[in-house]
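ingest -> validate -> predict -> emit
validate: passed (alphabet ok, no gaps, 267 aa)
predict: started
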Amino acid sequence: MLFRRLFLCALFVGLLTGLFDSVVQRWQVVPLILAAEVFEESAAPAAAEHAHADGAAHSHAAEAWEPEKGLERTNYTVLANVLNAMGAALLLMPLLAFWNRQRAGQPLALHKGYGASVRYGLAWGAAGWVCLFALPALGLAPELPGMQAAALQARQIWWSLTVACGAGGLALLCLVKAKWRVLGVGLLVLPFAIGAPQHAGSPFAGMAADVALQMQQLHAQFVIASAVASALQWLLLGTLSALAVARWLSPLLNPVAAATRLEGTAS
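emit:
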């Protein structure tokens, strides 16, 4: 019963958050990506063909599949956003429920009102944004199409380390006794002491000077737009997850307290 309700809540929260995130991206992020793709295509060679001594020409290009621009691409983006939000909700809601039970001992919404759940949800959403976007972005800023970057595997390893250290560091800073909080600071600093993998040359190598300048301006806007969109997504996800936990999950974890509070409210 509990797992079924958790799964249904995650589907509902993920659907709302993913749709909201898609709207924000379409308004704030996607235009910058499309503009960068125009510069990327203009900087690419006019053709991938070359001529041999006998005059014959052929192409070595083996393009990977990608959705067609327009409605198909938009649909895949929305689907990815919804699935990503559902997965995040499946992770966030059990943590919220456990924390709620440990700190409050009973459903927060039943004895403090839903405003308390919203505050806790915003705090947890902000923590998720810091761990999964803000900290990694300090070392590896979001990239536009056409930009050169370090090896993918090295970036993935550093990103995973930063997320893990961010989650552990925030947990130690916020949830344990003061004498252990210095370890949290150490975890937050560790990925940056190691250093994020960086591309050796310019991220706009191979582009004309005027194109590179415009790409730099686009990238600065893209970093800010991505940060805002991600923050809004996580704040909404945290809020909806906290409300779902307070309304539908906490009563199952502590049915006696829930019944008592409801009876007191009714009387």
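Residues 2-42+78-149+199-266 form one domain.
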